[in-house]
Design brief:
Blueprint: E1 4-11, H1 36-49, E2 55-58, H2 60-65, H3 67-75, E3 79-82, H4 95-113, E4 119-120, H5 129-137, E5 142-143, E6 162-166, E7 169-172, E8 177-178, E9 184-186, E10 189-191, H6 196-201, H7 204-218, E11 220-225, H8 242-249, H9 255-265, E12 270-271, H10 274-279
Parallel strand pairs: 1-2, 1-11, 1-12, 2-3, 4-5, 5-8
Antiparallel strand pairs: 6-7, 7-8, 9-10
Helix pairs in contact: 1-9, 4-5, 7-9
Bound molecules: zinc ion.
């Protein structure tokens, strides 16, 4: 069985991250410096170099302000999926508000790409039972909001009965698919191995060894990252809480070359979008 890597990108800008929320509440977004087009183009160039087809979970707010980058990603052959509109945690919204945020994001992305949007990822992996039922109502085929690294305080849990459809793909009671972020099980513990800040923190050789272990047992690995994680020239917010500052900026300067080495190391694998993997 050929090994498959699913690269996913949460398309949001540096000031929209939960760890920076105290300095950049939603009211400040309109006046914040947008850097997402340049940082996304760096990633697109890297993906082209390594023949990677990825999935971009785009924030509706970004699609509204930068529709061109959504088109560009789509024209490069990547899948556009949804990250909601305003990046509010699903477990803090009423059903009506969550439903509205999801529908608004989906409609906008579909009008920009002229394509159906199949997938959704909750901000900060804040999956809830309500979210799973709402997604089905709005015509989504899959969700990718579950991260089983339970030590992170904002991650949600996956409720209900799920059956394994194939490696890395679960099917829920209502027919919705789930594509969880993949972590590493080591000595009976779940180690955060899905990407993001953990990818920046762990030396690439060790990270690659962990991914190899996952691929050897499961043949499939799902990775996530954000364009701002490859943008060392973004404004530095000095007043941030020390732990949030560490999480946001650790190894940001070397991350693009690290990603290059990571993709090169796994060049024998196939890289495909989430929707392609579900429907192949
Ligand atoms: Zn996000």
């Amino acid at each position: 069985m050929q090994k498959t890597i699913l690269i996913t990108v949460d398309l949001e800008d540096w000031f929209q991250v939960e760890n920076l929320r105290s300095c950049f509440p939603h009211e400040k977004w309109e006046k914040s410096l947008l850097r997402i087009e340049a940082s996304t183009r760096n990633l697109l160039a890297l993906f082209k170099k390594h023949h990677v087809k990825a999935t971009f979970f785009a924030l509706g707010w970004i699609a509204k302000h930068c529709p061109e980058i959504i088109k560009e990603i789509s024209e490069n052959g990547h899948e556009i999926a949804s990250h909601g509109f305003n990046h509010e945690l699903c477990n803090t919204l009423s059903r009506a508000k969550l439903s509205q945020d999801i529908q608004r994001g989906k409609e906008l992305l579909e009008s920009i790409t002229n394509q159906q949007i199949f997938g959704y990822r909750a901000p900060n992996f804040s999956v809830t039972e309500e979210l799973i039922s709402i997604l089905k109502d709005h015509g989504f085929i899959y969700d990718s909001s579950f991260n089983d690294f339970s030590a992170h305080e904002r991650y949600g849990s996956l409720p209900g009965e799920w059956t394994v459809e194939k490696p890395g793909l679960l099917k829920g009671y209502n027919g919705l698919y789930e594509m969880p972020v993949r972590n590493l099980n080591l000595w009976g513990r779940t180690m955060p191995w899905g990407g993001g800040g953990y990818f920046r923190l762990i030396p690439v050789r060790i990270f690659n060894m962990g991914v190899e272990k996952i691929l050897n047992s499961d043949h499939t690995y799902l990775f996530y990252c954000h364009p701002w994680e490859f943008d060392p020239d973004q404004p530095r917010i000095r007043s941030l809480r020390r732990d949030y500052r560490f999480r946001h900026y650790v190894n940001i300067g070397s991350n693009l070359s690290k990603m290059d080495r990571f993709l090169h190391h796994f060049s024998g694998c196939r890289f495909m979008s989430c929707h392609e993997y579900i429907t192949e």
